[in-house]
Design brief:
222 residues; mainly beta; five-stranded mixed beta sheet; 12 strands; 0% helix; 36% strand
């Protein structure tokens, strides 16, 4: 397999993405995060509504996509997405790079670092030694963009301590989480009775995924 810089300098947007971006800091995207074949925890970036530019972080530190073939079942997904090329340097502007998903194919289960040719991403190197990315939705599940964390040990952030035991949510009910946010768990955004619980609901502009359900409503306490 040849690692190459694929694509060319792309058309610049009307604004500088180095100063207008969203933060992507999911700890599970770490390239050293190994998952097991459990469909309840697998991540898939096809389900993400990608819009605009993103700056990657890990544990509060600037991070970037790996420029090497990441092992299968890493980054919270089956086929980890890595950058098949090098990052640009400051002053090179916005460039386009190929993204590959590592997976196996055929009856022989032979591994292929670029089994999935993901839509290319646009990247810009910014002053301050960081990158911003314009991600595209992968074609399939389960694929997810990786974060290169180097030698940093993988660590999911622990929940904030509470004054009492953490309530355990029950599927099919509305659960009270430590953050005092109410999430509907039932299919079709259904929820159990909230009589006298004091919660308020709001609708979201975009649906979000929670426990593999597409939801559009959040419950919270005022």
């Amino acid at each position: 397999m040849n690692i190459s810089n694929t694509g060319s300098v792309a058309t610049s947007p009307a604004f500088d993405p180095c100063h207008r971006y969203s933060v992507l800091d999911d700890a599970w995207r770490a390239a050293n995060n190994t998952i097991h074949d459990n469909y309840n925890i697998l991540k898939c970036d096809t389900n993400v509504y990608w819009q605009g530019w993103y700056r990657m972080f890990y544990q509060g530190t600037d991070a970037h996509m790996p420029e090497y073939c990441v092992r299968m079942n890493r980054c919270g997904s089956h086929a980890p997405l890595w950058l098949n090329g090098t990052h640009p340097r400051v002053g090179e502007g916005i460039v386009t790079r190929q993204v590959c998903g590592h997976w196996k194919w055929g009856s022989s289960n032979a591994e292929d670092c670029c089994n999935f040719a993901n839509p290319p991403v646009r990247i810009k190197a910014c002053p301050g030694n960081y990158y911003v990315y314009e991600f595209e939705r992968p074609f399939y599940c389960y694929l997810a963009y990786c974060t290169d964390v180097g030698d940093i040990a993988f660590n999911m952030k622990a929940p904030e301590p509470t004054d009492g035991p953490t309530p355990q949510p029950n599927i099919g009910t509305t659960a009270r989480l430590p953050s005092s946010v109410f999430y509907p768990f039932g299919p079709g955004d259904s929820y159990s009775s909230r009589v006298d619980d004091g919660s308020t609901s709001i609708n979201t502009a975009q649906s979000f995924r929670y426990f593999r359900q597409a939801l559009t409503r959040i419950y919270y306490l005022i």
